[in-house]
Backbone:
């Protein structure tokens, strides 16, 4: 009974805190006017206009360079993946031919092995 | 400059059109008039999202630079105020995304013991000397909860509660219907309550 009462009291306390915090939404203080806002804005607009063409050009080149580098990396990855895949295929082919030539040399191919067991 | 917010929002379309025409024609003082007419509301809209005076003023400057550079593209059939507030919201959210990315990078750097002086010099987000400690703490808790809301709910409740925009004005800024805005605000309130309850349940 006591435990239940304590739980309820805690719930009420939390709800009170939530309400108090939510009240902050209605107490939004406005910022006062900035008398130098337009002067600073003018300076910023002027600085963006005065920006040398080279900086714009370099950012343009930089952007394309990054893209080209990404494409190059992708192509290199694809080529290396293809090479690895091809090598694996050819190496498995040579491996099979090596095994069969070894089996022929010592006459231990599947057929002779079967014959050995049926004779016995 | 002593106009109320609602007065400013009902600036007639005719006045807007004339102002835009004057700015486009490069008339002396026209852009300054536009800036002075909207600067306080733009700064406060940004402040509602970022909750830092200096950041809000910086973003507001970016908003007006964007307006200056793209006024040529502005279509006269749209309301100038709606267009300006839309840019303000977008710029503020972009800033928050950049900030969060920086924070995540900072945590990553910390993980690998890469120390960055810029990270150490980062300003705290809340900054109002007039508020009591308790109020400041509550504001920060509320802001953290707001930051975790889905983006459209956050926009709707920020514009509604902090900027006193009507649901119709918010629907114009967010390019959606009034009923969708009502639903967003309702869901935002419910979510905020849930998040705050969870917070206090953990910290009380």
Residues:
């Amino acid at each position: 009974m006591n435990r239940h009462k304590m739980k309820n009291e805690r719930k009420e306390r939390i709800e009170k805190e939530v309400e108090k915090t939510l009240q902050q939404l209605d107490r939004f203080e406005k910022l006062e006017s900035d008398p130098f806002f337009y002067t600073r804005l003018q300076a910023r607009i002027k600085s963006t206009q005065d920006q040398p063409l080279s900086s714009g050009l370099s950012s343009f080149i930089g952007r394309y360079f990054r893209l080209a580098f990404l494409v190059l990396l992708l192509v290199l990855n694809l080529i290396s993946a293809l090479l690895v895949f091809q090598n694996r295929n050819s190496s498995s082919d040579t491996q099979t031919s090596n095994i069969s030539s070894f089996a022929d040399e010592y006459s231990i191919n599947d057929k002779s092995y079967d014959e050995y067991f049926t004779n016995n | 400059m002593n106009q109320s917010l609602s007065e400013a929002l009902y600036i007639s379309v005719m006045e807007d059109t004339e102002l835009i025409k004057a700015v486009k024609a490069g008339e002396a003082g026209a852009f300054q008039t536009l800036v002075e007419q909207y600067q306080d509301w733009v700064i406060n809209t940004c402040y509602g999202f970022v909750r830092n005076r200096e950041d809000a003023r910086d973003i507001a400057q970016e908003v007006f630079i964007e307006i200056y550079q793209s006024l040529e593209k502005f279509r006269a059939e749209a309301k100038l105020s709606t267009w300006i507030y839309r840019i303000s919201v977008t710029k503020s959210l972009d800033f928050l995304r950049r900030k969060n990315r920086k924070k995540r990078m900072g945590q990553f750097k910390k993980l690998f013991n890469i120390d960055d002086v810029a990270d150490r010099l980062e300003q705290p987000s809340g900054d109002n000397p007039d508020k009591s400690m308790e109020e400041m703490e509550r504001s920060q808790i509320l802001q953290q909860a707001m930051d975790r809301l889905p983006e459209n709910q956050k926009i709707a409740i920020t514009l509604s509660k902090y900027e006193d925009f009507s649901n119709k004005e918010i629907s114009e800024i967010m390019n959606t219907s009034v009923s969708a805005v009502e639903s967003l605000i309702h869901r935002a309130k419910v979510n905020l309550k849930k998040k705050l309850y969870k917070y206090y349940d953990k910290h009380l």
User: Anything to note?
Assistant: DSSP finds ten helices and no strands in chain B. The domain at 128-204 of chain B is CATH 1.10.10.10 (Arc Repressor Mutant, subunit A). The radius of gyration of chain B is 19 Å. Residues 1-7, 121-125 of chain B have pLDDT under 50 and may be disordered.
